């Protein structure tokens, strides 16, 4: 399988897992009705609507801000797709595909609900005090793994073979 096909496959898998999990949690599991659901001592399911971007930044920008963020996301996805098409390593192409799939998944949420559906909450208790991580979703995980793959490929990956 060519690197570009692997990247497209990674994008499709990330997008499908993201949207399926959100649809199931919203409509099948009815997370909104159940509130906080403890899965593990350090992991809960909790519904959070993120109207901003990463970590809720710019959440009060209203409909105009939402449309600007969507337009920026479209430009970013197109740029990433061009980069993916030109990529020469499988790891970078898969990483770019994961980022694209995650970005599209969160964009679909913005179009459908006006906010991104976040549901995963990691936390730890130290000295009687609870520390929470930001609430996130599978699209966010795909983006982080994709960025890590790109960093690994560019910093540690094998150097490209030189043409004679």
Q: Return the structural class.
A: alpha+beta
Taken from the alpha-carbon principal axes, the silhouette is globular
Within the largest sheet, what's the order of strands?
1-2-3-4
Q: Evaluate the radius of gyration.
A: 18 Å
Protein architecture, described:
The protein is an alpha+beta fold. It contains 5 helices and 4 strands; from the N terminus they run ααββααββα. A 4-stranded antiparallel beta sheet has the order 1-2-3-4.
Helix and strand arrangement:
Layout: H1 3-28, H2 31-34, E1 37-40, E2 43-50, H3 62-86, H4 90-113, E3 116-126, E4 129-132, H5 138-155
Antiparallel strand pairs: 1-2, 2-3, 3-4
Please describe the structure with a list of short key phrases separated by commas or semicolons.
globular; alpha+beta; 164 residues; single chain; four-stranded antiparallel β-sheet; 5 helices
Task: Give a short summary of the structure.
This protein has about 160 residues and is an alpha+beta fold.
């Amino acid at each position: 399988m060519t690197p570009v096909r692997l990247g497209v496959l990674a994008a499709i898998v990330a997008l499908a897992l993201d949207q399926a999990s959100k649809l199931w949690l919203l409509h099948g599991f009815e997370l909104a009705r159940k509130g906080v659901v403890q899965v593990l001592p350090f992991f809960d399911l909790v519904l959070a609507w993120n109207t901003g971007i990463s970590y809720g930044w710019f959440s009060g920008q209203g409909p105009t801000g939402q449309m600007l963020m969507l337009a920026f996301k479209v430009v970013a996805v197109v740029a990433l797709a061009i980069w993916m098409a030109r990529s020469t390593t499988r790891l970078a192409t898969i990483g770019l595909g994961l980022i694209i799939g995650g970005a599209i998944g969160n964009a679909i949420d913005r179009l459908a609900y006006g906010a991104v559906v976040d549901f995963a909450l990691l936390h730890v208790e130290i000295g009687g005090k609870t520390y929470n991580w930001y609430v996130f979703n599978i699209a966010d995980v795909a983006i982080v793994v994709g960025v890590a793959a790109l960093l690994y490929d560019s910093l540690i990956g094998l150097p490209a073979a030189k043409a004679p």
